[in-house]
Every structure is written in structure tokens, then in C-alpha cells.
């Protein structure tokens, strides 16, 4: 049975669209105050899972409990305690920044006075106070995203769901957003985040699941996943205009991944591995040694890169 | 955060909660007042222009050459037809592009459905909003008609709910259609093939007896004909209660069917 602390509890959760199986019987628990990530490429089933958790899409099979309630029967009550940041912002572009918060808060039947008071704080939090009376349309992507997060917080939810919060944002906008999410996390808000960015998952998530083709391929804290499915370092060899010589490198490091334009050698000592490469007379166009990341975990789990 | 949640809880306990569908109506009113202030003037100007051009301008020509139409002057004849037809147009236009926008372009419905609101609330709120627009339209029209001296019976007051019902029958069907569309091309077809022919041929501008005999059943099958017929009887007096009852049954049945259909198609589109 679901533990008392579980904000979300899923067993055998599935979503089918006709013949397509988007989510294929997954199990997970998310604890109160936790920051939990769903990581995977497009089409892995992340958004379908999010929509089921947000009680916007009925499950096809399995058991799901959100905030101790059943989405099938308690949808409105659950949604009343969830803040959703959808992939597309679905903001009212013709209206002002402040109006967007006012209108959204009114869907929850919050008194105007309460929303106005919260809006002031939330706009400061989202660094949008100066733009309160401007229409949304001309705002930058980062500003719209922050407004969407502020909007999701207007009901002061116990659980904030963010579907690809930083997709399409420039690095600066992304870091500002991460900073805001950190602050929410430190205030004890439970965060559920989907992303196909490894660095985002590493930055924000206490625990995550790697999804692939509707299933969970691995789960755990980011560092544990890296420990288990990768090595400390990765040596990347680039070969411009030539097929990477996979055969010649066999046996170096713990594992070798041959990609169309480069070879990844997983080794605890990247420099040492490079020495072996040179000894075998292989001369890559360029090489570098880097820390291993979740990208490598995903590659090792599925044999594919996340960029698609 | 907890302290605020508590105040919220207390406020809910004290104040009566607003029904969810009315929160959706409130959204429509809010955005309407924020962005479409100018159309308030338009909705007043349209009936004045139509009645002046069709009723007075064309009417004086007809009265001069033909005499009366159905025993009244042309302005008096055409006014209730325009009332019902305007209700159709207002309801149709509010059920095409705005519904598409809320599903695909602005995705307002999805924003709503992420909150405690449900599909039936979204839909009822939409119809409540269309009804509001129809009340404004019909009341304005009737007021202008009275000013032009075309209202001949106290029963004319009932032409307002009749026009609203006529509009809703279109709104329900067109909203259901809009919920199945991927782009706005279908709306142009509905206007060209549906609304404009109805506007011209549903006894709005001339008695149905002027149409060739084979078209009578066709005209009789359309909702606008029944709306026009009922509005006309009510504003002119001399109500034939049997045919009025048929008109009413037809409009209520079509509206109910349309609402049920749109409930189904909205859910199919929005909750997947």
C-alpha cells in the first residue's frame, strides 16, 4: 500500500493511445519535499506520465495515487493542490502579466485580494515585477516560462509539476530558472520535473528515473546512476571525415561506445586511456577527457544518444 | 506557505464557493471587457444599421411597389427575422474561432483543465458566455426595434429568450464541430455553405411562401426558420400556438442534442 509520505505512488501505471503504448507499466514513489526527475528522449512517455499525475489524462491501467487520492475520482481536489507548468506555456498572450495570474487564481476560486497579494510576491520571485502591466506576447521565452511558473504557484500547491521547464531557453535564462527552482525546493515544495537535459537532471533532482520507450530503464540519485552505469571519466575522441576506428581501440578502458562521428571510451583514468590510444597509433582529430554524466548513463542503458 | 494556505482555507469556509462553470464565465467576461470593449458599440450599431438599411431603405421601396408583407409594412416584417438571424451570427462566431483558439492557439482550455475545473465546467462556462452575448444582442435588438416602432405585442418580450435559444442551438452544434477541427478552414465552409444561405433563405427577408415549393421542407428543417417564425409571431402578435409549440420543441431538442454532442466531443478532444 502507498506509504504515508508518498506524494505520488504508481504501480504498473500504463497509458495507451490505440495501439501505441506510451507508458508501459511503470512503478515509482515520490516522497514529500523530494525533487524527482523523469529523464528521457522525446517519445519516452514522460509527458504522458506527467499528464496522468496532473489528473489531465486518465490512466489506461495500473494504480496511481496523488496526494493520497485517486485521480479517477478526485481529479478536481488533486488539481486544486497541484501546480502545473506545461510544456507549452498556455498563457493568455493578449492579457497582461498580472491579469494572467489573476485569472488563473480565479479558476481556483481564490479571493481577488489573496491573489493580488500573492501575485506581488510571485512576480518579484519570477523577476517580473517591472513587467506586471505589460502584455505577455512580446516577453522573451525565459520571461514567459517564469510567468508560467509563477502562475502555477498562485494556488500555493503542495506539488509542482514541470514538463521540460527549460527547453528552448538560452543558457542564461536557464540558469535563472534553475536558481528559482532551487529556492522552491529549499522551501520544501515537492518538485516533479521532466527533462531531456542531463545537466538539468543532475542539477535539480534528488532522484530520477530514466525512461525509454515507455519503461523505466534505471532509477536512483544522479550520482548513483553515474557510478553504476558509467565510469568516473569519459575520453571523447573525434574523427572528422573518417569512420571512427572502433576495432583498433578494442579493450581500452571499461567500455567503448562508437558513434557516427566520435568514440567514447569509459575509463576511470581518461588521460591514461588516451596514452593507450596514442600507443596503438590511432590519431583522432581532437580529444578531450570529461566527467561522466547522465548522458553517458542513458547511452549505456539504451545504446542511443538523447539528441534526436 | 502554510500560513497562506490556512487563510485560504478559512476564506473558503466563510464565503460561498463560486460554481466552477461560473468561474469559466467570469474568465470570458474578464477577457471580453479587457480586450473587446469596442465590440460593445458594434453590437448596438449593427441592429440600427440593419433596420435602417433593410427595413427603412429597402422597406419604403417594397411598401411603395408591393404594399404590405404578411399584412404589415416591410420594416415590421423583417425586424424579427433580423433579430433571430443576428442571434445565429453572434452565437456562431463565438463558437468557431474562440473555441479553436482555446483548444489550439492559446490553449486556454488546457490551462483551465490543469486547475480544479473539469471539461463540463469549461463547456458550460462557454455556453454561459455565449448566452450572455446573446442576451446583450437580443435585448439591444429588441430595444432598437421598439424605437423603430416595429413591436406590436407585449409578447415581444418573449422574442428575447427565443432569439437566445435560436443562437444556442447553433452554438451547441458549431462548438461540437469546432472541437473536432485541426485548423480554421472548416469555419469558412460553415459560413459559406451554412450560415449565409440560412441567413438569406430562412424567411428572414421574405415569407417562405416565396421560395419554390421543393425548398419548403428544406427551410422548415433548419433551426433559423423556427427561430424567425417564433420571433415574428411574438413581435407581431397573432401567435399560432400550435406552430409556436413546434418551433419551440424543435429548438429545444436541437439545442439539447447539440449540448450533449459537444460534451462528448470536447471530452474526446481535451482529455486524452
Overview of the structural elements:
The complex is a heterodimer of chains A (308) and B (272). Chain A is globular and about 75 Å long. In chain A, the strands form three sheets. In chain A, strands 5-6-7-3-8-9 form a six-stranded mixed sheet, sandwiched between helices. The longest helix of chain A is centred in the middle third of the chain and has 16 residues, at 171-186. Chain A has helices at 46-53, 71-79, 97-107, 112-125, 141-153, 171-186, 198-204, 222-229, 246-249, 270-279, 294-302, and strands at 6-17, 20-31, 35-39, 61-66, 82-85, 159-163, 190-195, 207-212, 215-220, 233-238, 255-258, 262-267, 286-291. Chain A has two domains: 6-221, 3-Layer(aba) Sandwich (Rossmann fold); 231-292, Alpha-Beta Plaits (2-Layer Sandwich), CATH 3.30.70. Chain A is α/β, with parallel strands linked by helices. Chain B has helices at residues 2-14, 20-35, 38-65, 74-93, 97-105, 108-113, 119-147, 159-178, 185-201, 216-221, 223-236, 241-270. In chain B, helix 4 packs across helix 11 (223-236) and helix 11 packs across helix 12 (241-270). Chain B has one domain. By secondary structure, chain B is mainly alpha-helical. The chains are: A alpha/beta (308), B mainly alpha (272). Chain A binds chain B through residues 17, 54, 56-58, 75-77, 79-80, 82, 84, 86, 88, 90-95, 99, 102-104, 106-111, 114, 118, 155-156, 187-189, and chain B through 1, 4-5, 7-8, 11-12, 15, 17-18, 20, 23-24, 26-27, 30-31, 34-35, 106-108, 110-118, 271-272.
Amino acid at each position: 500500500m502507498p506509504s504515508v509520505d508518498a506524494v505520488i505512488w504508481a504501480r504498473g501505471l500504463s497509458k495507451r493511445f490505440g495501439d501505441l503504448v506510451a507508458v508501459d507499466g511503470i512503478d515509482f514513489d515520490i516522497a514529500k519535499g523530494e525533487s524527482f526527475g523523469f529523464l528521457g528522449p522525446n517519445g519516452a512517455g514522460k509527458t504522458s506520465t506527467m499528464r496522468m499525475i496532473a489528473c489531465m489524462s486518465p490512466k489506461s491501467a495500473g494504480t496511481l495515487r496523488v496526494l493520497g487520492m485517486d485521480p479517477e475520482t478526485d481529479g478536481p481536489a488533486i488539481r486544486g493542490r497541484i501546480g502545473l507548468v506545461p510544456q507549452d506555456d498556455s498563457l493568455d498572450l493578449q492579457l497582461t502579466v498580472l491579469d494572467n495570474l489573476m485569472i488563473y487564481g480565479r479558476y481556483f476560486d481564490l479571493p481577488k485580494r489573496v491573489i493580488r497579494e500573492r501575485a506581488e510576491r510571485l512576480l518579484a520571485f519570477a523577476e517580473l515585477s517591472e513587467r506586471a502591466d505589460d502584455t505577455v506576447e512580446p516577453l522573451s521565452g525565459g520571461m514567459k516560462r517564469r510567468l508560467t511558473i509563477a502562475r502555477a504557484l498562485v494556488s500555493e500547491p503542495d506539488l509542482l509539476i514541470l514538463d521540460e521547464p527549460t527547453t528552448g531557453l538560452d543558457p542564461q535564462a536557464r540558469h535563472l530558472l534553475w536558481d528559482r527552482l532551487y529556492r522552491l525546493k529549499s522551501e520544501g515544495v515537492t518538485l516533479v520535473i521532466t527533462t531531456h537535459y542531463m545537466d538539468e537532471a543532475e542539477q535539480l533532482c534528488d532522484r530520477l528515473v530514466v525512461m525509454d520507450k515507455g519503461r523505466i530503464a534505471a532509477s536512483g540519485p544522479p550520482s548513483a546512476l553515474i557510478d553504476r552505469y558509467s565510469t568516473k571519466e569519459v575520453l571523447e575522441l573525434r574523427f572528422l571525415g573518417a569512420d571512427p576506428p572502433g576495432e583498433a581501440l578494442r579493450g581500452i578502458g571499461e567500455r567503448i561506445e562508437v558513434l557516427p562521428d566520435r568514440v567514447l571510451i569509459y575509463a576511470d583514468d581518461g588521460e591514461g586511456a588516451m596514452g593507450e590510444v596514442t600507443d596503438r597509433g590511432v590519431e583522432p582529430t581532437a580529444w578531450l577527457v570529461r566527467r561522466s554524466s547522465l548522458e553517458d548513463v542513458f547511452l549505456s542503458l539504451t545504446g542511443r544518444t538523447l539528441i534526436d | 506557505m502554510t500560513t497562506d494556505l490556512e487563510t485560504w482555507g478559512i476564506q473558503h469556509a466563510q464565503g460561498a464557493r463560486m460554481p466552477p462553470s461560473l468561474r469559466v464565465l467570469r474568465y470570458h467576461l474578464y477577457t471580453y471587457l479587457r480586450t473587446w470593449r469596442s465590440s460593445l458599440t458594434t453590437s448596438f450599431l449593427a441592429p440600427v444599421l440593419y433596420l435602417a438599411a433593410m427595413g427603412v431603405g429597402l422597406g419604403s421601396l417594397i411598401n411603395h411597389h408591393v404594399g404590405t408583407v404578411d399584412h404589415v409594412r416591410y420594416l415590421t416584417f423583417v425586424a424579427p427575422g433580423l433579430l433571430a438571424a443576428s442571434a445565429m451570427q453572434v452565437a456562431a462566431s463565438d463558437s468557431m474561432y474562440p473555441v479553436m483558439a482555446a483548444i489550439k492557439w492559446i490553449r486556454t482550455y488546457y490551462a483551465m483543465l490543469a486547475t480544479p475545473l473539469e471539461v463540463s465546467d469549461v463547456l458550460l462556462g462557454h455556453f454561459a458566455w455565449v448566452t450572455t452575448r446573446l442576451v446583450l444582442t437580443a435585448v439591444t435588438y429588441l430595444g432598437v426595434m421598439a424605437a423603430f416602432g416595429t413591436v406590436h405585442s407585449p409578447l415581444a418580450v418573449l422574442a428575447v429568450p427565443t432569439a437566445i435559444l435560436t443562437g444556442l442551438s447553433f452554438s451547441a452544434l458549431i462548438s461540437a464541430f469546432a472541437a473536432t477541427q485541426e485548423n480554421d478552414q472548416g469555419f469558412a465552409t460553415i459560413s459559406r455553405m451554412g450560415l449565409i444561405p440560412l441567413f438569406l433563405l430562412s424567411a428572414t427577408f421574405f415569407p417562405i411562401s416565396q421560395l419554390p415549393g421543393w425548398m419548403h421542407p428544406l427551410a422548415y428543417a433548419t433551426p433559423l426558420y423556427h427561430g424567425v417564425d417564433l420571433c415574428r409571431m411574438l413581435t407581431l402578435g397573432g401567435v399560432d400556438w400550435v406552430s409556436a409549440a413546434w418551433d419551440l420543441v424543435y429548438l429545444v431538442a436541437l439545442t439539447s442534442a447539440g449540448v450533449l454532442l459537444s460534451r462528448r466531443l470536447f471530452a474526446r478532444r481535451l482529455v486524452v
